[in-house]
Amino acid sequence: MDRGPxxxxxxxxxxxxxxxxxxxxxxxxxxxxxxxxVRGASEVMERLSTRVQNECSQANGGxxxxxxxxxxxxxxxxxxxxxxxxxxxxVYPDRVWYAEVKLEDADKIVDQHLKKGEIVKPLTGKIxxxxxxxxxxxxxxxxx
Length: 144
Ligand code: FES
Hints:
Layout: H1 8-15, E1 26-31, H2 34-38, H3 41-55, E2 72-77, E3 89-92, E4 96-98, H4 103-116, H5 129-140
Parallel strand pairs: 1-2
Antiparallel strand pairs: 1-3, 3-4
Bound molecules: FE2/S2 (inorganic) cluster.
């Protein structure tokens, strides 16, 4: 069975992703351990945090025209175990793992995924499926 991501709305059938991307609370986890930081995770985290704070926070009035991505938090994560493919970013509960994320990719994650519900496909599929599932399950159990 092909489990590759097609779009965030298709992923919803598998992951429970809301039809309207503005409906669900999202957590954007950025690995801030050493391997990801030496590849630029700090800059990715800062870009994501700044854009989400300015464009996606509840302080902007909740979901709506002024806040197209709804309620989103950007949080550091200790390590996802995909250390050779960092910087790594996971959008939860969408269960989407972005690897080798560059600074400009942070903008794509905000503009395409958070605002439009579209998975940034070129940044996915780089992590072994068993590891992805293990980390997603940990997040499901609230381990973060
Ligand atoms: S250092 Fe980022 S996944 Fe381990």
